[in-house]
Amino acid sequence: MWVRAVLLAACLFATLCWIRFLLQAARLPHPHPLLRLCRRATDFLVEPLRRVVPPLNRWDGACLLAAAAVDYAACTALLWLNNETLFSGGKGFAAAWLFAVLAFSEAAAYALLCCLLLHALRQTENDALADSLNRICRPICRPFSGLHLPRKLSALPPSVLLWLWLTQALPALTGRLNLWLIW
Fold it and tell me: DSSP secondary-structure letter at 59?
């Protein structure tokens, strides 16, 4: 039970870091409530990391580094607590790194899915959030433009692909990684 709680907390934090990264890259104004929420939830780790990884124009790499660090720390701690003998030969560090990569991709998928759903469900067309979501979602939806879907449904194909990644591919990869650890 506590393992799931740790993984959920790490995933939530990493997803907020990804959303912050995407909204800042899409030039959402800093006073916007959604960006303020993400900043308040992640500033305690992002701000110190910003000294190591300064922002490059609109790309704030400290957000992604914070998400990766939390995912790696959570995976390493959980593997260590469950079987500390894994770390004597290096297999545990490799497994923690692979689990962290999967967790990082899970957080990215959840962040993109949130942006796509907000993009599809938004009511107004001329506000800062709508403009930012257009900047995020348009490149993701562009490969599916040949389907000639209405604007409200344009986010459906990439959302389905992200959902399949989250519900089918990620659990299968995690299961195979667990089998590799046992073997």
Answer: B
